[in-house]
Write a structure and sequence with these properties.
- The complex is a heterodimer of chains A (111) and B (112).
- Chain A has 111 residues and is mainly β.
- Chain A contains no helices and eleven strands.
- In chain A, the strands form two sheets. In chain A, strands 2, 4, 5, 9, 10 and 11 form a six-stranded mixed beta sheet that branches. A five-stranded antiparallel beta sheet of chain A has the order 1-3-8-7-6, with no helix packed on it.
- In chain B, strands 2, 4, 5, 6, 9, 10 and 11 form a seven-stranded mixed beta sheet that branches. Chain B has a four-stranded antiparallel beta sheet with strand order 1-3-8-7, with no helix packed on it.
- In chain B, strand 7 and strand 8 form a beta hairpin.
- Classes of the chains: A mainly beta (111), B mainly beta (112).
- At the A-B interface, strand 5 and strand 10 of A face strand 4, strand 5, strand 9 and strand 10 of B.
Chain lengths: 111, 112
């Protein structure tokens, strides 16, 4: 399966702390994306990192990509209660047409 | 600028029935993908439409079919519904598969 796998499955932190979640995948990719999902609703695109990039920032988000280890990490700094959601990585294995999602990390930020 | 619009938001059907879900892509987008998300799982790719044709298909049976109209909107049809078809169905649009996709809020289908 080309599906990504997020780790940990669940994470609970205090507001203000940093949250780190990881994604591993099995095949070569064109790019990797991170999405957020609140309470089983639609997915919100957070950030896209291409296979030739190693790190990318967007506001309080920092994403790294290590293609040699087939892994990525998403860091959310200074977390807020509003960051409580499920986070998914999605890999694009060079087709540009089909994304493979992992099972997600459920993040709870305690006020 | 409207995002991706899906209808209906919730739907209850009986096993064996047929269902049609609808999606209007974000303005300026021409590609529509459909995903199925079972409870507690990540989304699974069903198929993608571009230029009114199915461009790629995931591992779903022929009971799942779709259509894209000239205005880029799309429908997902599921025939002979099974209990296991109960899920959140997500539509995502993009500009020819480039950059990130914009997802709709989904249609929650319950098969009883």
């Amino acid at each position: 399966s080309q599906q990504g796998e997020e780790d940990p499955q669940a994470l609970s932190i205090q507001e203000g702390e940093n949250a780190t979640m990881n994604c591993s995948y099995k095949t070569s990719i064109n790019n990797l994306q991170w999405y957020r999902q609140n309470s089983g609703r639609g997915l919100v695109h957070l950030i896209l990192i291409r296979s030739n990039e190693r790190e990318k920032h967007s506001g309080r988000l920092r994403v790294t990509l290590d293609t040699s280890k087939k892994s990525s990490s998403l860091l959310i700094t200074a977390s807020r209660a509003a960051d409580t959601a499920s986070y998914f990585c999605a890999t694009d294995p060079n087709t540009g047409n089909q994304f493979y999602f992992g099972t997600g990390t459920s993040l709870t930020v305690i006020p | 600028d409207a995002g991706v619009t899906q209808s209906p938001t919730h739907l209850i059907k009986t096993r064996g029935q047929q269902v049609t879900l609808r999606c209007s892509p974000k303005s300026g987008h021409d590609t529509v993908s459909w995903y199925q998300q079972a409870l507690g799982q990540g989304p699974q790719f069903i198929f993608q439409y571009y230029e009114e044709e199915e461009r790629q298909r995931g591992n779903f049976p022929d009971r799942f079919s779709g259509h894209q109209f000239p205005n880029y909107s799309s429908e997902l049809n599921v025939n002979a519904l099974l209990l296991g078809d109960s899920a959140l169905y997500l539509c995502a649009s993009s500009l020819n598969g480039l950059y990130g996709y914009t997802f709709g809020s989904g249609t929650r289908l319950t098969v009883v």
